[in-house]
Amino acid sequence: MEEKEISNQESLCLINRMIYEAKGYFYESGISALIYGFSILICTALTFMLDSKIISFPFSPFYLFIPVFFVQTFIQLKEEKKKKAKTFTDESIDFVWTGFFLSALAALCGSFAGAGTIIITILLLLVGFATFLTGMIAKFKYQIVCRVFCLLMAAVSFFIQNENIYFLLAAAAVFVWIIPGFILRIHYKKQPHE
Prior knowledge:
Layout: H1 8-23, H2 31-51, H3 65-82, H4 88-112, H5 118-138, H6 141-157, H7 165-190
């Protein structure tokens, strides 16, 4: 195997990344998690009411994620620019959640094809797995415990294949995105920012 020579700039970038990784540096404000969590909460509530015939809606409430995706991407890119260094932990977690979102998108396509509420079970399994990996990578015990909760909800969801399954997805939104989003906000506000 041939070793590649790296430039002074690449060398400094690598050293920077390693220093910030060792310091436990992060620049995550929690806003993205909160936006995503509250969006899921709203969409699941609307879908529950739609399936229970409490309200009528001209389209699936989950289509509301289309503008949310763009807003969240804008916020994420804005936060990325403020980071002093992108650590290996940041990259690993980004890969985990990119994999989750692509898998969730594929699962939601099944929902639009008429696969029914079993899609929620699949989403809960995916959320549990992504949360577990994130917790292990970031050494965030809350997310490791949250994984157990998500997997238990996924197991229970096999027996609730009706509109009540949306309560499980709403609970996952609270435990996986909203609570950690507020935790990240607290830590973010404690750090000095330029």
